[in-house]
Amino acid sequence: MRKVASASFIGTAIEFYDYYIYGTAAALVLNEAFFPSLSPLAGTLASLATFAIGFVARPFGAILFGHFGDRVGRKAVLVVSLLLMGLSTALIGLLPDFSTIGVAAPILLVLLRILQGIGLGGEWGGAALLATEYAPRERRGLFASAPQLGSPVGYFVATAVFWALSSWLPADAFQSWGWRVPFLLSFVLVVIGLRIRLQIAETPAFAAFSAKAEAAKLPIAQVVRRNPRELLLGAGAIVVVYVMFYTAATYCLTYTTKTLGIPRPAMLALTLVAVVVLGVSTYLVARLSDRLGRRKLVIAGAAFGVVWGFLLFPLLDTRNYFLIAVALSGALLCMGIVYGPMGAYLPELFATDVRYSGAGVAYNLGGVLGGGVAPLLVAQISESAGTTGAGWFMSGMALLSLLCVLALPETRDRDLTRV
């Protein structure tokens, strides 16, 4: 199980590192590198729009990789998704900017971002299944925390690399070439991830299923036919995770540095503090879910998000570093409480023959609304109605997740070998 957990964690951490460096770059530099002819606000919105495109692509990646994951197996699909994500990320680091190749630069940026989204869309479902289908029933929450921890660790490393570069390099050097370094590091990380993942055998649950039953010809069609309720409610339940994270980690980075005038290195350092809170809470709550169940903990996290949505921006507007750290940490604490149990909760909602497709599509559908659309809407609402309106939006999305979880059952004791 240690080897399985390591493979699940390492691959997910690398893929989320790749994904998050784009979000950080979109908030800090991509508007000037690829949309220099637009106004600062329009350039920021265009940059965040390319960030959102990746989320739109993620459900398609979940359908594509879920199809083969449910028919061929979990392991092979996870290797391909890691390759796709890593190579598309590294190519962004080599992409000429607008001043060099003109309008072709943002077009190619969008295409590579779509490939990133497709790759990550296939990653989470497979990594979660790798952990849960190997784990004993009474410890599924604990071992399912491995892919969940990949997210905060990937983001911590991504933010730390950007913090170091923005602190050590002159502003002009960071703007011209320094931001590319985190993307180019993906070449090295992919090699490490592939070496670990290639050592893992197929999961016992899928091996037992494939030995006695025929795989569904079109798994996503079976999910829509048999489990539409679980698919839509599962997607809604995880929306609060995306809203809290991408508002705090992407839009708030833009808002504090460009509107409030907080220095970029200081904001990145404060974000690192919040990410530590995310990682610790994700692990502890995931482990606790083996004793208390997944559902009640997710309900508690979503309810906390309803409250924190109103507090986030007033705390940021103080410009006090300690209170900014509290604001970001509270948002990511909410995420951790919900995100920790989700590694086991979403896979447990679906049967073995459609689990990769069902869990992956639910996870990534929630990302379209919560991660792709939320930063754009928060930016536009803040511009037109102020940050109070943005807080109402965040709390409303948390309430949506709360209502969805209330309509779902507890799954802690389910048998994952069922079809």
TrEMBL record:
Membrane spanning stretches: 45-65, 77-95, 107-132, 153-171, 177-196, 231-254, 266-285, 297-316, 322-346, 358-378, 390-408
Annotated InterPro entries: MFS, MFS_dom, MFS_trans_sf, Sugar_transporter_CS
GO CC, one annotated term: plasma membrane
Gene3D superfamilies: MFS general substrate transporter like domains
SUPFAM superfamilies per record: MFS general substrate transporter (SSF103473)
GO MF annotations in UniProt: symporter activity
Topological category with respect to the lipid bilayer: Multi-pass membrane protein
Domain Major facilitator superfamily (MFS) profile stretches: 4-413
Main location: membrane
Domain of life: Bacteria
One Pfam family this sequence matches: MFS_1
Keywords: Cell membrane, Membrane, Symport, Transmembrane, Transmembrane helix, Transport
The protein, known as: Putative proline/betaine transporter
